[in-house]
Amino acid sequence: MADLTKRFPENPILKPSDINPSQQGMKVECLLNPGVFRFEGKSWLLLRVAERPEQKPGKTTFPVFSEEGTLKILEFDNADPKLDLSDPRVLRHDGVDYLTTLSHLRLVASDDGVTFKENGYPPIFGRGELETFGIEDCRVIRLEGSHFLTFTQVSANGVGVGLRSTNNWRDFLSHGMIFPPHNKDCAIFDEKIGGKYFALHRPSSPAIGGNYIWIAESPDLLHWGNNRCVAHSRPGQWDSARVGAGAAPIRTGDGWLAIYHGANEQHRYCLGALLLDLKEPWRVLARSCDPIMEPIADYEKTGFFGNVIFTNGHLVTGDEVTLYYGASDSVICGARFSIAEILATLR
Ligand code: MAN
User: Fold this and answer.
1) How far is the C-alpha of 332 from the C-alpha of 13, rounded, in Å?
2) Which of 18, 77, 156, 243 is the most buried (most CB within 10 A)?
3) 196 forms bridges with which residues in the sheet?
């Protein structure tokens, strides 16, 4: 089946060479998975910028932050028998895992939703012992006059979900880690339901269970409880290995439309959708059988990590969702969907 998307003809709209490195000695290797929001009459992307030094022949060189926030460069010899380089995103040395790049978040703005440029707002870096390997894949919502950011925090302690808030995108309040390891893909609903905040999140259970979408509720955005499992990966299907929420679910007359990513054992990432009950959002009313979007364009099939479409940001105008996504973990792209068309495919 052809997917339901109208891709931007301008895709990719941003590539690594469009963004300056955060400091001398770093190279922007990949742009990925932007958070999306409106602010001061413009559309904004909060890009994930993945950097490392230019690679030297025979060596693998990558940056990490110390707990104090200084950048350290680590280097391994590719001939080292203790080094495992089988995944371009992660390396393992002597049983210890690292990321091959260090990610921070960068703001770009646009008047037309297609041409995005940096305009003087500061980059957002990982800080402290829970973010020494960087911060990634940020969801942004607006609630009660502030923007709230949920993002993946990575360090040798594990992978969890951090929360920060801001009123002006220059000063940030850190609310710490709200979902401890292993957890990522946290999308807070952008309105309260029955007087409570709700968030989709994705714990990983290595033995019994798997990489499933869960929902939690909170009185204050900081303390989350009453966790329930919402959606499993589905053996033998396109989302057989892992599923994870995209951006905040979209309120429709039929329920909350939650766009999610699903990957199979070959790490092919597609998008699908869930329809959640408006009042009891832990109840799934319907789900995509086939993906609503698959990696079929060249820029989605080849890159730093090919065959990946990953979204954590969109803007909604009436029936139209303008979805922004990372393609092949390399470049930023956009696509448009009709909400009614997605709903019509759910079973
Ligand atoms: C994980 C995350 C994403 C990334 C995909 C595909 O789900 O690290 O950031 O885009 O893998 O590599």
Assistant:
1) 6
2) 243
3) 193
Residue 190 to residues 34, 58, 147, Cα–Cα distance (Å)? 17, 48, 10
pTM: 0.97
Give the count of beta carbons closer than 10 Å to the beta carbon of residue 107.
21
Is 334 within 8 Å of 320 (Cβ atoms)?
Answer: no
Sequence-distant (6+) residues with CB within 8 A of 11 are 297, 299, 327, 331, 333, 334, 335
For residues 161 and 135, give the distance between their C-alpha atoms in angstroms, rounded to a whole number.
Answer: 9
- Residues 6 or more apart whose Cβ sits within 8 Å of residue 213: 185, 200, 201, 202, 229, 230, 231, 243, 244, 245, 258, 260, 274
Q: Is 308 in the pocket of ligand 1 (CB under 6 A)?
A: yes
Q: Which of 269, 325, 331 to mutate to test the pocket of ligand 1 (most atoms within 8 A of CB)?
A: 269
Q: Please choose, from the candidates 293, 269, 287, the residue with its C-alpha nearest in 3D space to the C-alpha of residue 343.
A: 287
Atom of ligand 1 nearest to the CA of 242: 7
pLDDT for 1 beyond 60:
no
Question: What is the 8-class DSSP label of residue 16?
Answer: G
Ligand 1 within 6 A of 101 CB? no
CB contact set of 205 (below 8 Å; sequence gap of 6+): 211, 212
Q: Is the CB of 305 under 6 A from ligand 1?
A: yes
Q: What was the pLDDT predicted at 39?
A: 97
Residues 231 and 234: their CA atoms lie apart, in Å, by 9
Region for residue 303 given its phi and psi (left: phi exceeds 0; alpha: psi -120 to 50; beta: otherwise)? left
Q: What share of the chain is helix, strand, coil (3-state, %, to 5)?
A: 5, 55, 40
Q: List the residue whose alpha carbon is closest to atom 9 of ligand 1.
A: 137
Give the model confidence (pLDDT) of 79-116 as tens digits. Answer: 999 999 999 999 999 999 999 999 999 999 999 999 99
330: nearest Cα among 12, 32, 25: 32
Question: Amino acid identity of 45?
Answer: L
